[in-house]
Structures are given as structure tokens and as C-alpha cells.
Amino acid sequence: MDFNKVLFILQEISPYLPKSEMGEFSRLLAQRVQENGAEVRTFMPKYGYVNDRRNQLHPVIRLSGMNLIIDDMDHPLIIKVATLQPARLQVYFIFSDDYFTPEITKELETNSHPEDNDERSIFYVRGVLEAVKKQRWAPGIIHCSGWITALAPLYIEKIYGDDPSFRDSKVVMSLFDEQMVSPLSEDLYKKLKFDGFSDEELAPIMDKSASYVDLMRLALEHCHAVVQCSEHVNEEVLKMVEEKGLPFLPYQGDDNNAFVDRCIDFYHSL
């Protein structure tokens, strides 16, 4: 297992979206991991809010051009990249105009069009994993942050688990003080079944709309460890972490520099 390769699957990272606890912590952690000598790959969705020109995004031709099939429909995958200075941290952006608008917006598509969030989440997670697979890159740690990434542990274990890029990876899930605009469509179950998941694997979302707690339950069933990144997070989710006995790094206070150092130590403890 190579702890010198870390994949970050993020809902957001500063400074591409308005300042937030999740975005600031994600940037500091990814930057510190890279400064410590690890090879880092960092991904987030290419929301319409992210201005290509201002942030100097460029298409990654060698990774783009794939089609992802979701619910028997083809969706083109486009990947762009930008470099955060002075850290020289590369951030890859997952895009398709089926789920993210090419126009500049003031509101995230996850908020303005929540009816598509089930497929948007599937597309984002699968887009990241297909990109990493195409790079033939094998991360030792995969760190997921935000509800839109909650399906990643399930896909990594059950669909990509035998792939050389992922078979030795440890998946870490971050918990933040976050909310969803609305539960995901109850069609999420059917769309995941189309990808080959069993009823047992999808039990937390069977015959229901998937709430934040449902998504986190699905993530906790298939991840290896959890980090509490906000002082206040959903109590029901915290209780699930305790019941499952997962390796757990509790909230370390508002000194983010010390916190990210503890996260790096936590990676090595897994």
C-alpha cells in the first residue's frame, strides 16, 4: 500500500467557490499532504460558478472523451485542470453539460437543480474513478469530502475493487456540518441497480428518497475510516460511526494547521 499517493475526491476546494469550512480545510489538507512529499490528485465538480478564464482551467484531452452510461443513457465526460499557486497544487474538474452548466452561474447546480443530484453524484464519482483508472495511478489513501462524494466508497469497493488502481486503497470519509437542499430521488436505487449493485448493498436507500443520513450510512458501510472535520456534525451519523467501530479521528479544534497534521498521522495509522 502506497501512502505516498493520496486521492482527494472533494465536493469543493478553496478558492473556486465562496469561502467555506469545507473548502478551506480541503485545500489546506491537500496542500500539506503534497508538501510532505506525497503525490496528490485532487478532484471537484466543474460547477458553472467556476469561471474557466479567471481560474485558468484547461481541458485534459488525454482523460476526456469517455462516455459514462447512467440509467442506460450516455453522458460525455470532460475533465479540466487548474493549478493553485504558489503551492503548485493541481485540481482536476469533472464536467458534463448534462449535469453542470457551461455558463457562469451564481448558484451551484446542486442547489438550483436538485432533481438531478442523484445522477450528478453518480456521474461525478464515476468520472473521478475512471480518470484515475485511465492514468494507471494507484492511491494508497482516497479521502472523500461532501455528500456528493458519498457513493465513492461503494463504487470503489464493489465495482472498482479488483482494479489495480484501487484494490489496495484505504477510503477515508470526512464529516462536515453540511446539509442537502433535498433528498435524492428514489430513482437513485434503480440507477445504482443498473450499475450492478445488489439489494443488500443498496438496503439503506431501497424504496425511499435518499437523505443525507442515508447517503452517509451507505458511505460508512464501505469506507475504512472517518474524520470529523466540523465541531458540529449530524449526531445520527456520529452514532453510526461509533456502532461500526471504524477508525475515527474526532474534531481537533479550529487550528486547521495542527488538524491537518493529525490527519496525515491518521493516514499512516490505518
Give a written overview of the molecule:
It is globular and about 45 Å long. The protein is 34% helix and 20% strand. The strands form 2 sheets. The chain has a 9-stranded mixed β-sheet with strand order 3-6-7-2-1-8-9-10-11, with helices on both faces. Strands 4-5 form a two-stranded antiparallel sheet. The longest helix is centred in the middle third of the chain and has 19 residues, at 117-135. Helix 1 packs across helix 9 (256-269). It has a single domain, classed as Rossmann fold, CATH 3.40.50.2000. The chain is of the alpha/beta class and 270 residues long. It contains 9 helices and 11 strands. Helix 8 (235-244) links the parallel strand 10 and strand 11. The protein has helices at 21-35, 52-55, 109-112, 117-135, 152-158, 187-194, 212-222, 235-244, 256-269; strands at 5-10, 39-45, 58-59, 67-70, 73-76, 78-84, 89-95, 141-145, 170-175, 225-228, 248-249. The N and C termini lie close together (11 Å).
Domain tally: 1
CATH class: Alpha Beta
Instruction: Give the CATH architecture.
Output: 3-Layer(aba) Sandwich
Report helical residue fraction: 25-40%
Largest beta sheet: what is the strand line-up? 3-6-7-2-1-8-9-10-11
First-to-last CA distance: 11 Å
Q: In DSSP terms, counting alpha (H) and pi (I) runs of 4 or more, how many helices?
A: 9
- How many β-strand runs? 11
